[in-house]
Design a protein that fits this description.
The complex is a heterodimer. By secondary structure, chain A is an alpha+beta fold. Chain A contains 9 helices and 7 strands; from the N terminus they run H-H-H-H-E-E-E-H-E-E-H-E-H-H-E-H. The longest helix of chain A has 54 residues. Helices cover 68% and strands 0% of the residues of chain B. Classes of the chains: A alpha+beta, B mainly alpha.
Chain lengths: 393, 176
């Protein structure tokens, strides 16, 4: 029999004790126990009437204060359950908001005017039409052809763009994205890539789609406003399984500033030559100066073209997309509609949130466990000390 | 067994139910604390402290972990044991509870003798035995509630209770 086990008779006596305490009748052989209980109760210490009155008053006063507070119109103190529910609701709302924002449901045409470059410095995005101009080249290349606007401008209408100083940087973005999808959905994915590119204000510089069973593939060279590149990558990533994503940036601010400085110098030289031309005494002098002016005009025009090319590079990012056939990508239905796309984006957002939560948990958990262990230790020690006090009382 | 509703932490009935718990338990809590401390003044202080703590912590009461009565007795027990520890550290003397034997004078002599005998026997018991008897007889706790207050299993609480009763009988010279 273990230490805690009682015999049947002992258990019966304890049952009888419970009946005695509940003032229920017991058998005759338990009357002695009933008398014992009665004696213990009768001998128990009673409160001094003065103390009892004082305690009554204290409890009544405390209860009255509480009652008064509950009658006073004020915000009720939220319980733990309410706080937990409210926190959960806030988190859910934040998650829903993130999903909606990331899926672009609220704003399908995301048009930021500036964004941060990977180095943390602002990327200049102009508000000129050339920002979304189609590149002239059709082959895949990170170099964007310069638009003709400005290139043919004469020296007389010269107006140099301001040089970029301080934190303002001109950055060219170049990315490659490899997607995998099933051969059956290759055409659908290709169509959606084109549609998504046009929705973000970009153009398809070149494309090549080959449907040939397992060897199906597609490739695209896209030119998109730099500010829309990340959005477009996110959109395309939701169309199929992402096999690879490479992103590179090239800071062209120095080249841009150098061209601007050269243009300013040449403009000053041109002004001086024009002044000399006006005061030239002989026809030979005029001819010499005119030759110099012609050469200078050509250089200025070339510098204008180069500046425009650099600006276009900064404003327009290139994205090379390759779509390959892959069985594992079958789950990515290329025929997915906007809601599926939004759902996929939401999942991506949730993944990101989960990752952040995991990192936060990894940071907080050791502290929480330490605090818990400390609390447990202190409580145990205190309880042991109390039991010791009981034993030695 | 006295059944008391859970102590609500808010709402219009919160204060009333706490007062109900107080009215049904105050005398028992005091008797229990006084038997542990054997000092009337300290027992009064600890009883008042126990109710103050209970009032403050009523938001932490969880009905799944016991009845309000067992919760209250657990608070009172901790407060009383803390007082004992404090006294032991400071070396304070314990003052026996005032002799109240005169209160039995009006009773039948045999009954009065018996009650005095039981009171003296109870005083001779070890504190642990006296505590468990007071919690059961005066506090009217069930064995499950007893286990909750004493932080042991229900079967262990039953065993401790039975052994305490046997010892009380022994010191009182009572035969079953």
């Amino acid at each position: 029999m273990s230490r805690n086990e009682l015999s049947a008779a002992e258990r019966e006596e304890l049952d009888a004790l419970d009946r005695i305490i509940a003032r229920e009748p017991v058998s005759e052989r338990h009357l002695e126990l009933a008398a014992l209980v009665d004696s213990v109760r009768a001998g128990a210490q009673r409160m001094d009437p003065a103390f009892a009155a004082r305690l009554d008053a204290e409890v009544a006063e405390r209860a009255e204060r509480r009652r008064h507070r509950s009658l006073t119109p004020r915000l009720a103190r939220p319980g733990l359950r309410r706080i937990a529910l409210a926190s959960g609701g806030l988190v859910a709302a934040a998650v829903a908001f993130t999903i909606v924002i990331s899926s672009g449901v609220l704003n399908g045409s995301h048009t930021p005017t500036s964004e941060n470059s990977p180095s943390g410095t602002p990327l200049i995005v102009p508000r000129t039409p050339s920002a979304t101009a189609a590149p002239a080249t059709s082959k895949r290349s990170p170099t964007i052809a310069a638009p003709t606007a400005g290139a043919g401008a004469g020296a007389s209408n010269f107006a140099a763009s301001p040089a970029l100083h301080g934190a303002a940087r001109l950055v060219h973005k170049d990315s490659t994205l490899t997607l995998a999808t099933s051969p059956a959905t290759m055409q659908g994915v290709a169509n959606r890539i084109v549609a998504a590119t046009e929705r973000t204000g970009g153009v398809v510089a070149s494309s090549n789609v080959a449907i040939a069973g397992a060897a199906s593939h597609a490739s695209f060279t896209l030119a998109v406003p730099s500010g829309h590149l990340d959005h477009l990558i996110a959109t395309l990533s939701a169309l199929a399984s992402v096999r690879a994503l490479n992103q590179s940036t090239n800071d062209i601010t120095d080249s841009y500033n150098q061209e601007q400085a050269r243009l300013a110098d040449n403009a000053a030289t041109r002004s001086a030559l024009l002044a000399q031309l006006a005061t030239a005494a002989t026809a030979a002098q005029q001819a010499t100066i005119q030759k110099q002016l012609n050469r200078l005009e050509a250089r200025i025009a070339a510098e204008h073209r180069e500046i425009a090319r650099l600006e276009n590079q900064g404003h327009t990012a290139t994205l090379a997309v390759a779509v390959v056939a892959g069985a594992s990508a079958a789950k990515h239905a290329a025929s997915a509609g906007p809601f599926t796309t939004a759902f996929n984006r939401g999942l991506h957002a949730l993944e990101a949130i989960l990752a952040i939560a995991l990192v936060a948990l990894a940071i907080v958990l050791p502290f929480a466990l330490s605090a818990l262990a400390l609390w447990w230790g202190v409580t145990s020690v205190r309880q042991r000390a109390r039991e010791r006090a009981m034993r030695t009382a | 067994m006295t059944v008391i509703a859970a102590v609500p932490t808010s709402g219009p009935g919160a204060s009333e139910q706490f007062e109900q718990l107080y009215r049904s338990s105050a005398a028992d809590v005091y008797a229990y604390v006084a038997s542990l401390l054997r000092d009337r003044t300290a027992a009064e202080d600890v009883t008042a402290l126990a109710f103050e703590r209970a009032f403050r912590r009523r938001a932490l009461f969880d009905v799944r972990r016991g009845t309000p009565r067992s919760w209250l007795f657990a608070i009172a027990r901790n407060a009383a044991l803390d007082e004992l520890r404090r006294r032991r550290r400071s070396g304070a003397l314990l003052h026996d509870v005032a002799d109240t034997s005169s209160e039995f004078e009006d009773l039948d002599p045999d009954l009065a003798d018996r009650r005095l005998l039981v009171r003296e026997g109870l005083a001779e018991l070890a504190a642990g035995d006296r505590e468990v008897i007071l919690l059961k007889f005066v506090g009217r706790l069930s064995n499950a509630e007893l286990a909750r207050v004493l932080r042991c299993s229900e079967s262990n609480a039953g065993t401790r209770l039975h052994r305490a009763i046997v010892r009380l009988r022994e010191v009182c010279g009572v035969t079953q």
